[in-house]
Each structure stands twice: as C-alpha cells, then as structure tokens.
Specification:
- The protein is an all-alpha fold.
- The chain has 11 helices and no strands.
- It is elongated, with a radius of gyration of 23 Å.
Length: 196
C-alpha cells in the first residue's frame, strides 16, 4: 500500500510516534472504531505487526460489515475524520492515502477532512511539507550520528549500523558540525630516513 511505503521510507514526524506502540493502545483505538489499515497508517507499523499486537491484546476482531455499521454512528464518523486530519496535517498524507486508510474514495476522504476542520492542500504544498519533514528527520539523524561518533564509534561502524554508505555518514556528520578525528594510517609505517 502506498501509505505503508511512505511510512517505511520516511518515518512519521509526529513526536507522539516516537513512543512504542503497545498492544493495549492499538486495541483501544481499534475498539473505538479504527480499522487495521488506519492503525497501520497512524502507527507506522506493518499490517502484520498491527494484527499480531491486536491479537496479543486479546482484541475481538470485527468484520468489514460490522465496521461499516459502526461508522454509521455520527460519533464514530467524527473520530474517523479527526484521525484522517491528523494523518493529513501532521504526516503529510495525500487524499489518495487518506482514502486508502479509511477504505473509501478520495472524494469521501476529502469530505471527512473538511468536516474535521482541515484545509485541502495543493500538490506543491504537500511536496514542500514532505521535503521539510525529511529535512527535520535528516537533521535529527545527523545529530544522533554525531553523538555516537563523539562517544567513540567509527564512521564505518555507523555506516554499517544505519545501512548507509560511508560517504553518506561523513556528509551527515559534517552537516551536524562534527569535529572529525584524524584518520588512522593503514599499512607499514613510513621510514624515517634512508639507509646508507
């Protein structure tokens, strides 16, 4: 699903998302009317992980018919609209992604967004929002790498841990204003003088 790919490439920037998503928290949201797809979109977890955590919490799963019937309730519709607005405004989701999360159409997602007090963006505004979110995440990563480097980690170690190239790690460290250590020399030590 498009929204799941987005979340894997660019983790959510909502500060609340930095906390672990517990099975009980997912169960409460599901029992309040959220679908598994919506929980995937909000949490950034995979579909299978969300299902496993719901089962771990002893959640009684609904059928799609039961979900539709539940959503005819005006209160449930308001909760859904508010959830879509959060996705749209805090994570930069598109109307297509909202429609996928809600299991409906783009027009239906747009209507819910407006009902929740949201304002529809242009494509350019969405692109700028996502670029800004990526820049924030990259800066946070650079600062994290700097702290680990200054604590003694080497650039190759950081590159391997983060699954980045060495050049990318160097670039991020420089962006964070890191004072780099002298590079170690490899191979035999240079001779101090020539033999007669």
């Amino acid at each position: 699903m498009e929204l799941r790919r987005m979340n894997q490439q660019h983790p959510p920037t909502n500060p609340a998302q930095s906390q672990p998503v517990t099975p009980d928290a997912l169960r409460k949201q599901y029992e309040a009317g959220a679908t598994v797809h919506e929980l995937v979109a909000v949490s950034g977890l995979s579909y299978g992980t969300v299902l496993n955590r719901l089962h771990d919490a002893g959640t009684v799963m609904r059928t799609s018919w039961q979900t539709r019937r539940m959503r005819q309730d005006p209160q449930a519709r308001r909760r859904l609209a508010a959830r879509l607005r959060t996705l749209y405004e805090q994570q930069g989701a598109t109307l297509t992604e909202l429609a996928a999360a809600a299991g409906g159409t783009r027009r239906g997602a747009r209507r819910l967004l407006i009902e929740a007090g949201g304002t529809v963006r242009t494509t350019q505004q969405t692109l700028r929002m996502r670029a800004a979110a990526r820049a924030v995440e990259r800066h946070k990563l650079a600062l994290s790498l700097r702290a680990r480097y200054e604590a003694g980690a080497t650039v190759p170690d950081l590159a391997q841990e983060c699954n980045y190239s060495v050049a990318t790690v160097y670039r991020l460290l420089h962006q964070a204003g890191t004072l780099m250590r002298p590079q170690h020399r490899h191979g035999p030590a240079p001779r101090e003088g020539k033999r007669p």
